[in-house]
DNA sequence: TAGTGGTCTAGACCACGGG
DNA sequence: CCGTGGTCTAGACCACTAT
């Protein structure tokens, strides 16, 4: 009964669940079948099921609670890089007020591939959103975002005047992956005015492209006054 | 025989090996006792030993090879963040020449805690190293480093005139962990001259403090011309 | 209280690859 | 060849907690 189909049994179980989570079939908070149920489904021992689920938990894809069951976890990105850019959370933690203010909203159809570092298929309909993140009235970031409407059609009817699109998108398309590029620049006149800093002052810039299975969902550029913002990351051999 | 001493058996095995690796008692490339040997040492079943070793392998701390055994892996930091800052590797990959040039070397004894973001115990003897990283003759970074001599005494007699201290330190003290802070700044006159850029141009700055079990090993500030350098990171829910 | 995950056992067969 | 890791079993007892 020892299935040896190139991949092991626990890898098969791991992969099946991983795929369903990445597909969006299973969403954060959803319950995963119990070990006993998976035993029956796959026709293997509980140890084997346990090995797969334990590995999924170690990878941060699911969370396991006694008596309750196993559940799809929130995306890891939300707990790492997002953590330092979720202004609402940061503000709340420090007892400060947070506000998002929409500056501009328009829908464009891309004639050519994007001029940025990220390639975008031409002809895609894109929702452009510019906005400011403010903490206690101070502008922490200028956000320039593009949302691919074929990937996230609901964005067309969503009101972003006071809701930051970042968190909304995370709820729409969980378990994406992302490429981050961090760079520095000088403030031009227009950017300086929006951020409330001097022209020529230093800026810390984060570009992020979020994808789901090779489909681009959104691109965002977060432009921070260097005096107000830095990125902090902790790395160790054990957990990256 | 089911040991239940607050931590489980496989956690105990995992922790013991992890500690020996972080202590430096086990160094990269060293062989770890086989599963059968660990069974005897801990008096438990092979499955339990296997669970610990499998988890260590998943965490990237060890590598396992059939017939050969299990071995301490190279630090993960070297494969993630370090990767984008190892100028020698980057240059070699692009077929370009790399050079490190030492600018200044001195030994100081700290009277007060460091003025930087990182706290450093006073009274520590510190080796200060300033140097330039050049690729094809172009300065990619100005490095200002402090090496704690109590943590790395060999640094006192080491020649850093052409050897970049980063790689050397990695070999001396493997399996450290680190905190990174990325920020942006404007070039003052002195820095601009060293980097070969205009005064007031944008700089991308990386501060890193490397530790080993709460003991600071080194602090480094890498100052990059923003026009020449950016940090790229890939994140996904599976592996961070 | 009952269901869930957490842990552990004492075996077993297999695949791989270094000696 | 044969020691090593890779996988799997069919149980078992326990800890936790939602109900």
From TrEMBL, chains A, B:
Start and end residues of each HTH gntR-type domain: 7-75
PROSITE patterns: HTH_GNTR
Protein name: Histidine utilization repressor
Pfam families (alphabetical): GntR, UTRA
Lineage summary: Bacteria, Pseudomonadati, Pseudomonadota, Alphaproteobacteria, Geminicoccales
Key words, A-Z: DNA-binding, Transcription, Transcription regulation
Native source species: Tistrella bauzanensis
